[in-house]
Design goal:
7 strands; five-stranded mixed β-barrel; elongated; single chain; two-stranded antiparallel sheet; alpha+beta; 191 residues
Length: 191
């Protein structure tokens, strides 16, 4: 089970919104208060802003589907370092970045990055999600009836912090990835 294409693309764009901001800042002439490549810079900034806003709206609207009890939690905060490599591209000279050959090469590189992130289901290792308070955790949990719980493992994307023995509501995003809400709804008691 892979995340759907369009939501995956939105998440991917939002992950690189800071890169768009860096590239645009490097293209900006602070003497004339204008972009050297106005249209491409503004388009990149608009896509970045829209993707971040949409990501915030979508993440807030996603509900958990059923309650589970967390039995073990391990943070995966270090995984965000994986996003640092493409950001290094921004510190190469930008004066020729928007020339067609350089821009096309960069877009091909980003397309490859997207396909890798989508196919490996690592889209949710996203610095914007971290900035708005989400973390990734390796989790062991129990679901099902309290007298016969089923033990499972997965990676949880959680806003805020949570701990062992917490009851959360989860929504499956991919084969081993779940969105967890830390505030169970009324009647959620997995005992």
């Amino acid at each position: 089970m892979k995340p759907r294409f369009l939501p995956s693309l939105l998440i991917f764009f939002s992950a690189y919104a800071p890169l768009a901001l860096i590239v645009a800042a490097k293209d900006f002439d602070f003497k004339t208060y204008a972009f050297a490549h106005r249209t491409p810079a503004l388009v990149v900034l608009e896509i970045a802003c829209i993707s971040v806003l949409m990501l915030c709206v979508v993440m807030r609207a996603l509900p958990g589907q059923h309650p589970v009890t967390v039995t073990s939690v391990k943070s995966r905060a270090g995984d965000l370092i994986n996003y640092s490599i493409p950001y290094l591209v921004a510190f190469v000279t930008v004066d020729k970045f928007f020339e067609l050959s350089n821009f096309v090469s960069f877009m091909l590189f980003m397309a490859l990055m997207f396909m890798l992130a989508w196919k490996t289901q690592s889209l949710f290792i996203n610095p914007i999600l971290a900035v708005i308070g989400y973390g990734l955790y390796d989790v062991e949990f129990e679901e099902g009836p309290a007298d016969r719980p089923i033990k499972r493992e997965g990676v949880f994307l959680v806003k805020g912090e949570f701990s062992q023995s917490t009851t959360v509501r989860i929504m499956k995003l991919s084969q081993f990835l779940y969105l967890a809400t830390t505030e169970p709804t009324e009647g959620d008691h997995h005992e």
